[in-house]
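Team,

Forwarding the record for the chain on the shared tracking sheet. I've put the sequence and predicted structure together so nobody has to dig through attachments.
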Amino acid sequence: MKNQPDMQPENPRMPLTRKNYIILAIGFAVVLLGFVLMAGGGSHSATEFNYDIFSFRRITLAPILVVGGFVIEIYGILKRY
């Protein structure tokens, strides 16, 4: 039978290691960046429509960053170091 490497974390009482927390922080920053890019100001007047809400940044880039950030969060939680 092959020798199995020890799969125990550094501290048996802590389920996540320092690397996991770093990955979680990066994922949180990506999600936050996505929400900041999605946010925007309204129009200056109630009678005019601001077409900037349909920009590439708000419709495509920001949601991709938010979903990508959540994927990074899931990876950071599930990955064993």
